[in-house]
Amino acid sequence: MSFFKKITDSVSKGVTTATEKAQQTVEITKLNNQISGKRKDIDKLYAAIGEVVYDAYLANDVSVSEEQVKPKCEEISAIREEIAGLDARIKEIRNEKDCPSCGKRVSDETKFCPSCGHAFPPPVIDKEPIQVDLHVPDESETSVETDEPNAALEGDAESPRADQRQICHSCGTPLYADSHFCPACGQSTRA
User: Which residue ranges does the record annotate as region Disordered (predicted)?
Assistant: First the structure.
């Protein structure tokens, strides 16, 4: 009976995770639509500013346009702040941050920017860390049963160890295809 309980729990967790992901996707789509609408509002304001300045040019007195242009510029600044807030919410939902050096968007867990190598400060932990007991398999648990000794270690095509992804030579972390630096230890990948 516990077997069916485990399956039920596993399916339930999967459904919950899928539901959360779907809700996040819907929220991100709504935020992106709001950003798009605000950018269109900025474009309209730019056009209005251009029209005011051109009319003042035709009247041979550009200084007159300043009174009409300044409120539109302030409105653009306010809209840009709103866009920044919406973008920050998207990053929060996706658990991402921007590199202050190069602007690349990376995961919150990234310690070093994979593009420029910028070191991120360690995260501030608000809660007590969760104690986790790590299970380290002994030799009997890691051996692979085959007719040929060390077949799995030699890069057999069926072996899970045959994966040819780029990894950091310093710490063994899997790297992004375009990484110039390891996101975990900061070591250059171009050696």
Answer: 139-162
